[in-house]
Amino acid sequence: MIASFRKRRGCVSHAIEALLPLFAVVLALAIGAMMLVALQKDPRAAYSALLQGAFGSISGITQTLAKATPLLLIALGVTIAFRANTINIGGEGQLIVGALAATAFSLALRAWPGWLLLPLTALAGAVAGGAWGFVPGMLKARLGVNEILSTVMMNAIAVQLMNFLLRGPMLDPKQIAAGTNIPQSEALPQQVWIARLVPRTLFHAGFILALVLAVVVTLLLWRTVLGYRIRAVGQNPSAARYAGIPVARISVLALLLSGAFCGLAGAVEVMGVHHRVVEGITGGYGFSGIVVALFGRLHPLGAIPAAILFGGLLVGADQMQRTVQVPSALITVLNGLVVLMVVSSVWWSQQRALRRRSSAVPAGPAEERPPDPQLTPDV
Amino acid sequence: MQQFFTVATLLGILHSTVRLAMPYLYAAIGETFAQRSGVMNLGVDGVMLMGAYSAFYVTFTTGSPWAGVAAALIVGALLGLLMALVSVTFRADQGISGIGLYLLGLGLSSLMFKTTLGTVQSVSGFAEVRLPLLGAIPYIGPVLFTHSLLVYGAFLLVPIGAWVLNRTTWGLNIRAVGDNPQAADSLGVSVVAIRYATVTFGAMLAALGGASLSISALNIFQENLTNGIGFIAVALVYFGGWRPLGVLLGVLLFSLVNSLQLWLQVTGVGIPSDLAVMLPYLLTIVVLALSTRRAAEPGALTKPFTRGSS
């Protein structure tokens, strides 16, 4: 009976753990409201405009799902890296090179039929992003360079590469002809445009692809040898090494895969939404994707609702800025607060687990219960 | 070649190297203290942005750049305490909490900029001061001793920082806490207090570095004014082997390459400017990869401290 009682309590506490990110969002919204009051803006008007903009209309919902697509793909990449105990801050740069590569590839082979060119274009983006993740991975494995720093540098380099290409080699010939020289690439050949799921909206089939890939990553992480190794390296690198897992190779592979998902996000973004590379194509997705991954508790399936929520925040922010003149930068503030609170909440879980463990000692042997996953925080 | 490289252009490049180094120096020396005690604050860029905004806003409204500096230091201290709370008390993963702090600073500085100022304005911040005597030395005077007060402050931080870290009890405690917190703790040094102090101090300097952009180097504020300077500063701490003198060397090298590429852009020597802008970043990656001083890394860097665990 004691066991069943403890089991129930375990269920309740797991439910609390799962809801922690939601508490973080509510708290972040409350702090954001206080900031708005301090800046003499009406928080109620701001938040209702935010909600209305994100989920209040067909156009809002489709835009939300369109924004959720790259966020989900990046969050999947970030999740894979995190699971292997590597931190990929390079989503921005990987997205950029993915978008550039997909564009250059499809334009170079524009005569090819769509059934062949479309998947290859997406693949080109993933390969470029993977390469952009592979470099920090190798630098970490071979030379011990901290991947956080190298991925940040790779972001800066990717931005400059994009600026260079969009003003020179990849500048749209129409822009040159018109003499306007707005830095953007030529439009992608129509056969690689991803179909829109709702006509005259930005909502495209890339979202379905992202959902499928979320399932694929779940299977990869929990049903394959590679996934097992990634998680083993992430949880305890020395134990993994002792078990014969090539730790360095796994972390390179994790960063490569992580970069590939971010590169794919860039390819899907140009193929589905913009149909060309424009400046500011990242929209900060590389960083928001990290927030989404954390919010989804580093689980690929958890990232799905997280991506929709944060995509909605981005869409709603535009509405909020237009109708009640609250700058959309508020969303960046909320993202930052959510990250700080989610990473801090690991501590609360640990404290509670410690208390639970110490109170459980007289009741019986500790082996009765499987080890609490929260004791080894994912983050 | 002669017409490109006159003495005047050379002096100009060196002068701008010294000026460009200023925000990096503040942020990187501050970060050196935090990392020496075992905490990596990756959110430096966000703190710099908040420092830049608050210094600018206060200077704009009061007309006094000194009030601006005070505002930046206060805001930096508050953000430092927040980072310390999250990464020391709550023992959060430092890479990720740093990203959270960055997003917070980036968003909040834009939000406040747009609601309070709205458009890009300019202030008269700190003016260049030619130091008496030293400024009159030919060649060296114009390069080193004709700058705003905040530039001198940044360079003074290097010897002061090195002295504090290597020659004082505080420095000894900071290094002990960063290398072996368990041992330091057992000797009665408060790991938590030292880390709170260094993270807060580091954030104050980062905010000052941001202020040095908005009320000294550029005298404007706009969204994302720093454009990643804080992240480079964190890399330069690794680059400099966690020693203030090494950091100075890294900052100067980075700024020299930066200054050279700016000059190349002006003269238009055929290298596309966007590719030239990459050079400092490429250089940083290469030097990080070749750096052999990794043994100098504080033993407990990025590892949260729990009493009783090893």
Describe this structure in words.
The complex is a heterodimer of chains A (379) and B (310). Chain A is mainly α and 379 residues long. Chain A has a domain at 67-306. Chain A has 14 helices and no strands. Chain A starts with a helix and ends in a 19-residue tail after the last helix. Chain B is mostly helical. Chain B has one domain (7-119, 148-295): ABC transporter involved in vitamin B12 uptake, BtuC (Orthogonal Bundle). Chain B has twelve helices and two strands. In chain B, helix 1 (7-36) runs antiparallel to helix 9, helix 6 (149-167) crosses helix 7 (169-179) and helix 10 (229-239) crosses helix 11. Chains A and B meet through helix 6, helix 12 and helix 14 of A and helix 3, helix 4, helix 10 and helix 12 of B.
Furnish the topology, listing elements before pairings:
The complex is a heterodimer of chains A (379) and B (310).
Chain A: H1 2-38, H2 43-55, H3 58-83, H4 91-108, H5 114-143, H6 147-167, H7 173-178, H8 206-223, H9 225-235, H10 237-242, H11 247-274, H12 285-295, H13 303-324, H14 329-360
Helix pairs in contact in A: 1-14, 2-3, 2-13, 3-8, 3-11, 3-12, 3-13, 4-5, 4-6, 4-11, 4-12, 5-6, 5-11, 8-9, 9-11, 12-13, 12-14, 13-14
Chain B: H1 7-36, H2 44-62, H3 65-89, H4 94-117, E1 128-130, H5 140-144, E2 146-148, H6 149-167, H7 169-179, H8 181-186, H9 191-217, H10 229-239, H11 244-267, H12 273-290
